[in-house]
Amino acid sequence: MASVSTIAMWFSENSGSIQIMWLGWEVDTSLSIFLLIVFILIFTVLILSIFFYKLFLLPFKIKKSFKKYNVKKANYALEEGLLASIYNENSKIIKNYKISKKYLKQTPLLLLLRLQYNLIKSNEAECFNTYKKMLNFQASRPIALNGLISIANKNNDQELYSNMLYTARSFKVPLDYYINNAFSFCLKNNNWQVLSNHISTDRKKNQKKFKYVNTILKYFKAKEYYEKGNSEKAMSIIQQTFAEKVFLPPSVELYSRLHKDATNRNLKKLLRHYWRYFPHHNILDCVLDNFKNLSLLKKVKLLIELLDGHDTLYLKYLLLGEIKAKAKIWGDSKKDLLKSIEIFPNKKAYLLLVNIEEQTTCNKDKIKSWLSLSQNYNDLLWKCSSCFSVQKDWSMYCDNCNSLYTFYHIGFDNLPKNTSDFLANNNSLKIA
After folding, report:
1. CA gyration radius for the chain?
2. 391, part of any domain
3. Which of 53, 182, 234, 241 could form a disulfide with 222 if both were Cys (CB 3.0 to 4.6 A apart)?
4. 53 lies in some domain
């Protein structure tokens, strides 16, 4: 403040004068007035400049505001369209895609909505192009791989299928993202070599998914050799699957057929492990169809020996009751079958009891009662944990939802499910 006062006093004492002459006009004023006028002029020019600058920018701001509004509207349409995809509301998908595609750049989510739109229109060419664009984004790459493998499957395109497996390896896409569709291609075209090579190249130790998938591939390769008459090669391949302690019903059945001329010792050992890791009713057929040197009574004793453990499992007593009925050990057979029903009521046990009663005391009341009770149950005891479809026997592949290793027995509640969640195809959004 002191310095400002000093300057003001100095100007008052030394005000001086300024004379301006221009075109015959003469203006006399003091220095302070002149400086004030200059300041006012500069301030006025500055204000006018800002005003005209803002006036110039006004159209751009309005355009930007409209664009921002449209982008917001498009993002909302994108969300609505994707949600509509889950509920299969086709009209909403079409409407919201047309809105969102006008104002949004290509992103994984927009491409996903575009895919839904093209799937509704059944435009395979545009679906193919969309999948190709989705490969450019890490987030949408698994969807693109699944979609392109599905197209290859539909058109029996071996080259496209091989290229997609190579692409998956190049981008290091995890196997569980596309294995179901890859397996479906192999199953349809009976061509397992390409996927087998792909798995063996990318296989990592101690990863359960590789072990289970590799077991399936080896089973089909062994089956192919068996059908061509090369039993020795088939046996060599199928034994590799058991070395990893993966026991599947079809693998055991194939081994049982291949083992008929071999020693019984190895088959016994295998069936013990099989029962321990994967209780299944076909172990009875393996015993009956093999061990030709044993009588039926000795096969009963053998089965009792093999079915060691799982004492709370209904299947154990059902199998014992069934083989004892074949050997005509009626009393023990009935006890085992009734024990089986006590643990888990099932149709087969009731029908076996009816058969035994018809061949022994022929008690019509019991026969009628058991027949009536059998009608309350069905043979569809294997359920897919992914889509909940049911069927008579275990299968490594669900035709309904294209999932692997998802079937479990509904009567085995006290056992861990023989499924692998990473192979379940739980997508509710349509991607192919």
Report:
1. 40
2. yes
3. 234
4. no
Structure tokens at 91: 């009209």
- As a whole number, mean pLDDT of residues 257-276 equals 82
Domain extent for 427: 381-432
Q: Residue 112 and residue 85: Cα distance in Å, rounded?
A: 10
Q: Does 431 map to a domain? A: yes
| Token digits of residue 175 | 């196997």
At 243, the pLDDT band (50, 70, 90 cuts) reads confident
The residues near 388 (Cβ < 8 Å, ≥ 6 apart) are none
Give residue-wise pLDDT tens across range 73-119: 989 999 999 999 888 899 999 999 999 998 888 999 999 999 999 99
- The alpha carbon of residue 366 and the mean position of all alpha carbons in its chain are separated, in whole angstroms, by 49
Q: How many of the other CB atoms lie within 10 Å of CB of 392? A: 10
Residue 352 to residues 203, 239, 320, 340, Cα–Cα distance (Å): 47, 35, 12, 11
Tell me, yes or no, whether 79 lies in a domain: no
This prediction has a pTM of 0.72
**Which pLDDT belongs to residue 51?**
85
* Residues whose CB is less than 8 angstroms from the CB of residue 254 and which lie 6 or more positions away in sequence, other chains included: 219, 222, 223, 226, 234, 238
Instruction: With a cut of 70, say whether residue 424 has pLDDT above it.
Output: no
Residue with tokens 């479809």: 389
Q: Any residues with CB less than 8 A from the CB of 282 and at least 6 apart, and which? A: 249, 252, 253
Report which of residues 380 and 109 the model is more confident about. Answer: 109
Name the residue among 162, 163, 168 with its Cα closest to residue 141: 168
Residue whose C-alpha is closest to residue 325's, from 360, 294, 293: 360
Across residues 356-373, what is the average pLDDT? 88
